[in-house]
């Protein structure tokens, strides 16, 4: 995933990690953390810190990801899948829900950012 300066056309940074075609990218903000959420045919959804370019969270899915959606969630006590405990500007927890429609043989996967907290530079989780 490449990030570009829209005024100058200069490439700002690359978010590296997906191993197949990236099908959708969303920009999101949560509790002061600016995030990029990307889905790929490599069967993963990734959450990135827009400032550092670090991959904060990766969620494996049972099939290629064709679309991603982002919405705010204030759920308390919800089970999270592999919560990220990273050292960096943001700390992220993601909940993965999965549905399978046997008639159409389609998987629906939703990765919800439950918690994203800003962390001062150099602080430890």
UniProtKB/TrEMBL annotation:
It comes from the Eukaryota. InterPro entries: WD40/YVTN_repeat-like_dom_sf, WD40_repeat_CS, WD40_repeat_dom_sf, WD40_rpt. GO terms for cellular component: transferase complex. Keywords: Repeat, WD repeat. Coiled coil: none annotated. WD repeats lie at residues 15-58. SMART domains: WD40. Pfam families: WD40. The keyword Repeat applies. This is Guanine nucleotide-binding protein subunit beta-like protein.
């Amino acid at each position: 995933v490449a990030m570009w300066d829209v005024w100058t056309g200069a490439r700002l940074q690359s978010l590296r990690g997906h191993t197949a075609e990236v099908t959708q990218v969303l920009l999101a903000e949560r509790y002061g953390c600016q995030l990029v959420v990307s889905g790929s045919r490599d069967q993963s959804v990734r959450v990135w810190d827009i400032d550092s370019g670090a991959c904060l969270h990766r969620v494996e899915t049972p099939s290629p990801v064709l679309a991603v959606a982002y919405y705010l969630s204030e759920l308390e006590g919800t089970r999270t899948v592999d919560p990220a405990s990273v050292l960096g500007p943001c700390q992220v927890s993601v909940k993965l829900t999965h549905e399978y429609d046997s008639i159409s043989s389609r998987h629906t996967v939703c990765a919800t950012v439950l918690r994203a907290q800003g962390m001062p530079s150099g602080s430890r989780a």
